[in-house]
C-alpha cells in the first residue's frame, strides 16, 4: 500500500511525498514540467532515519507496480491527479488526519471516525488533544461528548458557553424514549377480566386503556393470580398494576390487598389516593405505618384497622403484624420499590418480611384455602431475572418510557452560577405550556436540607414562586407543598435527593443542582429515580432533566471523584443489580422474627382447626399456651440474603435466652417475642435488658440519642472564614474545632453567639453532649412543647439549628423505644416497665397533663440546665 500526497507549495516547486507503509520507507521528489508532461526529479529515499538520493525512475517504478495507491484527499494533493493519470497509475482516495501528518503519523479518517475542527477534519486522538488543551475535565467525558458531537469546537463551547439555555442542542446529552410502546397493542379497560365496579372507577379517572407495562403485566398472568415482578420506568403506571390484581382478588373473595412501601410519606400518599378512589366502591382503606402516635397527628382521622379491605403500610408497619401473627385473610401483597432490598438500612428487613409473607402464602393456602398473590414493583432493577428466580415469580420488563426524557448537561462555574441557571430554567419551563395545557414545573434536587431551603428562598427573592420540601419538615407542611404543586400554584419545589423515590410531584423538569446527597455522590439508582421523575404522560409532551455540573468540584475532601467524573459515570450507568447480604445481627433479627411468626401462625392454625368444632369465636388472645415449633420449619422461609449457618444463629439466640432449643424443637421465650416485635437486634435488646436499672431518660438517651444539631449557616461561614477551614455543619463535629479556635474569634457579636457552647459543654465529650440534648428535647416535650416550639427554644438558648421534622421523628422513635422498654421491662423489671408506659403517654400527648415536669436525672450538668430554664 502506497500513499501519495503533495507537501506544500514552495515557490514554484511541487514537492511530493510517497509513503510505503508496509516497508516503512518514504520517498520524496519534486515535479517539474508543464501540465501536459510532468516528470519526477531530485528524489530521495528515507529509511530507518537515513536519507539518500534515489533514481526517479525507481520511484516511478514503485508507483506503477504497487497494487494499491492512495491519494490523500486534501486540496493540494488532489492537484497530483493529472500526474498520476499521465502515467496510468490507478489510485484511490484516502483522507489522512492533517494534525497527525504534522507529527509524522499517518492516520486514516473515515466518515464515522473524523472530528470537525474549524473547517477541517481531524482524528479522534488529535480532537481529544485539542479539547484537553482548552478544558481540564475528565477524559472519558470528553471522549463521550466528542463521539456525540463529532465536532471539537462544539465540545469546547459547551464549557465556555455564556447562555447555555439558548443552546439546547448543545447541552442535550441524549434522549431516552419510549420506542417500544409502538409495538404493544394496549388493552382497553373494557377488555379486562376485572369486576365491573373496578372498571367504572378506572374509567372515571379518565383512563380508557392500559399503558404498555400494564398490558404486559396482564399478558404475564396478572389477572390469573400469578406472582410477578415488574420493572419499568418511573411513573410508567406500576401502581395500577397492583390495584387491578388486588381489587379483583378482593372482590372475588380471595382476601384483602396489602400495599407496602418503604417510606411513611409514601404510605400517606397512597393511603389518601386509595381512600378517595375505593371508598366509593364501599371498600375500607387503612394505614399501618408504626408511626403517628404523637398527639399532633390526631387531628386527621386515620383508619388503622388491620381488617380493612385495603391496608396500606410501610414494610415495618406490616411486618409488625406478621411477626405478631395478626395479619389474616390476605389475597394480594403488592411490594412497591422492591429495589429497597439494596439499601443498607432496609434490605434485610424487607427480605425477611417477603420471606415470611411467602411462607404464609404456603401455609395459609393449604389451611384456609387461600392463595396470596405477590406483586413486586420497581423502576430500577439491573437483574430482574435473577431476582425473579429468587422470589419464584414471573418477570415483566418494559424498557420504554411513558414520555421521552431529554437529558441535558450544563457546566457551571460555581454554586452561584448554578443558582442563576436554576432560576432561568424554572422560569422558562413555567412559561411553556404543554399540548395538554399544563405549565411546566420543576423539581430541584440538592444535597442538603439547608441548601434546599437556601435555594428556594433565593428563587423567591428573584420572583420565582418556589417552596422547599424535605424530611425535616412536619407532615402537614409537606402536604401543603404537595397540594400547591399539584394545583400549579408554585413553579418549583426544591428538595433533597433523599426524597427521590416515590413522592409524587408531577414535574416536567428535574434539575440536579448537585450530584451529591449528604456527604456522598449519588448512586446510579438514585440518579435514575431522580431523572425519571421528569415528564408525566397526559400532562407533558416530554420530560427534561438538567444536570448542573461544576468541573473539578468535590463537596468535601474525602470524596474520591470530582463532579464532572461522577456526571459521566451516572449518565452512562445501568440500573444496579438488587442484592441482599445479611450481617450477623441482621440475620439474628430475621431468624428470631421468623420464629415468632411461625409460632404465632401455628397457634392460630391449630385454633382455627380446633375452634372449627367448638366455637366460631377464634380469639387467640385468651389462649396463651406456648407451642414449640420444629427447627426445620425455618428452612421453609426463603431468605435471599441468608449468610450464616442456621444452627449457629439458632444457637446464639438460645444463648441470649430469646429462644429455648431442645432436640430440634424451638420455643420462643417472652424475651424473644418482645425483641422480635420491637424490631431490635438481639444485641440492642440486651442493651436495654442490662440497663433496666438506669434512670429511664438515661436509658433512652443511650439507645436513642438525639444527634441532629446543626451550626447555623451565618455562624458557620463567619467562623470558617476566620480560622481558614471549612467547619462542619453538624454541631457535634464542629464543636471541638470552634473550642480550639475560640481565641481567634474576636468579633464581639460572633463571640457572644458561640460562647454559650463553650461554657455549657466545657469538658464534655461528644457522647455527653448528645445525651444532654436528648434529655433536653424530652424535657421540653413533656412540658407540652410541640416539635417546632422545641426547635425554636433550642435556637434561642443555644444558637443551634434543628429541624422540627427531626424532632418529630426523634419523639416517634422514642415512643418505639419506650414500647420496647415496656415489653422487656415487663419481664425483668416491672417498675421500669410501668415508668416507660407512663412516660410514653406523656411524650405522645403531654397536653392533657397540667403539672410541670422535669425528667429525673443525676449529674450536675442537667441541674444547671434546669436553673437556666426556669
Ligand atoms: N392507563 C393509564 N393511562 C393514563 N394514565 C395512567 C394510567 N395508569 C396510570 N396512570 C397515571 O400515571 C401516573 C404514574 O403512575 P404511577 O405512580 O403508578 O407510576 P409508577 O410506575 O409507580 O412510578 P414510580 O416508579 O415513580 O413509583 C399516575 O398519575 C397515574 O394516575
Ligand atoms: Mg410507584
Automatic annotation (TrEMBL):
Domain Helicase C-terminal, first and last residues per copy: 418-579
Pfam families (UniProt xref): DEAD, DUF5814, Helicase_C
InterPro entries referenced in this protein's UniProt entry, alphabetically: DEAD/DEAH_box_helicase_dom, DUF5814, Hel308_SKI2-like, Helicase_ATP-bd, Helicase_C-like, P-loop_NTPase
Chain segments annotated as coiled-coil in the UniProt record: none
Top-level taxon: Archaea
SUPFAM superfamilies named among the record's database cross-references: P-loop containing nucleoside triphosphate hydrolases (SSF52540)
Helicase ATP-binding domain span: 219-399
Record bears the keyword Nucleotide-binding: yes
SMART domains the record matches: DEXDc, HELICc
Keywords: ATP-binding, Helicase, Hydrolase, Nucleotide-binding
Keyword Hydrolase: yes
One Gene Ontology molecular-function label: ATP binding
PANTHER family hit by this protein: ATP-DEPENDENT HELICASE MJ1401-RELATED (PTHR47961:SF1), DNA POLYMERASE THETA, PUTATIVE (AFU_ORTHOLOGUE AFUA_1G05260)-RELATED (PTHR47961)
Designated name of the protein: DEAD/DEAH box helicase domain protein
Organism listed in the record: Methanothermococcus okinawensis (strain DSM 14208 / JCM 11175 / IH1)
